[in-house]
Amino acid sequence: MNKDNRHYCDVLIIGSGIAGLSAAIVASEQGLDVIVVTKQNAVEESNTYYAQGGIISRGIDDAPELLIDDIMQAGDGISNIEAVKIIAYDGPTLVEDFLINKVNVPFTRSPENGYAFAREGGHSRRRILYSMDSTGKAIEESLIKKLKEQEHVRVYNNYTAIDLLTVPHHSASPLALYMEPQCIGAYVLNNTSEEVERIFSTYTILATGGLGRIYQHTTNPLGSTGDGFAMADRAGARLINMEYIQFHPTTLFHKDADGFLISEAVRGEGGKLMTKDGFHFMDEYSPLGDLAPRDEVCRAMYEEMIKRGDAYVYLDIASHTDINIKKRFPMIYKRCLSLDIDIQKVPIPVVPAAHYSCGGIQVDLWGRTSLKHLYAVGEVSATGLHGANRLASTSLLEGLVWGIRSAQHISGLTKDKKLYKESEIPPWRFPERVEEIDPALIQQDWVSIKSTMWNYVGIIRTVKRLERARADLSYLKNRIDDFYRTTRLDPMVINLRNGARTALIVAESAFKNRVSRGAHFVR
User: Up-side HSE of residue 489: CA atoms within 13 Å toward CB?
Assistant: First the structure.
């Protein structure tokens, strides 16, 4: 029997990466009552925590116009110029004012006691602030420390968001049909008690991160199952550019590595890609060589691997840099060494992996979606900043900028008169007969989703592959939806349902777009 616990807040934030926590801090400081929901037991568990490379600031010889040019070039000309200008002009200021001065993120310093700047692929200047090769971890831990100082924030960890609460969809009143659709909160599963609770909020911010786990090879953590994309789609919000899935060129190829990311900064510091027989191939594919945008590097690697029948290529930094590799990349060094790969002496075996969704829930310049009172920030959103391909190290900055902007926008609004009655919004209804979960079924469905996405909706796509993906994923999604409606509610089931829907969204978007551009390449 469900106890029907209810919670109330001004702002509900689903997700706890840089975007969600930045929004929570700013909203709380503006006096708003905030609830942060995260499906993991540890608040820091997010894409942000695992980000290695860094965050864009403003280099010594840098200018906003230079960054704008780099972003537009990486985005293959279809980036939203207004969003790009906001990042270029406002982003570095927020890094200094918010992350450095307010949150006290310990970015790496140069010997002269200024901040050290790295350069990454696609950048014309050294402008990347970093904390060795654990930048995301440093940012996330600093944000959590600041969050704990806030008086108006409640954090519900180990809660899984099931669906957004919306009217008229969830209203029992037939007259609600005449209301403008709006988000009023969310149904969430208490993972501990297994009860479904309702959170009623004036505004809701989706900050759920990415979708990498719908692919066979990914750099994303286990929680990146596309939840926000699926929830928004079910609620009727508009999604765009979902075909543009960026693959990271360099993840460690090893049976025990689970997509461990080898930072873009390794190539920025001089690392070069080569085949097993020592051929440095990137100059054959791009005038930028090893510093080409990620989509070009991934396709080049894929072509060389297919041509030679190899499962991986090498990334060699030991032969091409004078830096102290162990000091500059301590986490990468330790992880590789634990697998008997000393990157100071030998090249690193690497393979491309799904890394980032350049599209998502369409939002305006303040993070507002097409659904009233619903905002989206970070990777789950589509500001248009990335266009067809994301420039390295823009993701953390986008999450910071739009996390803050969404909270600022909400704090400046006058609360609307509540047009719906809470009594008309029913508590969660469990099915009369509930089947127990069979983990083997869930595991097999995930295998089907991941292999379909990797083989048919991967680095290089064809119309025939995409036709097969649409058919297979549509059947799988319908079967999983039936499974969800009759099975005991559990985070595994919720994640699977979201993953199947998000995979189909990506495949449908890729099939409809026959123009190769950026991260979407169709033969």
Answer: 23
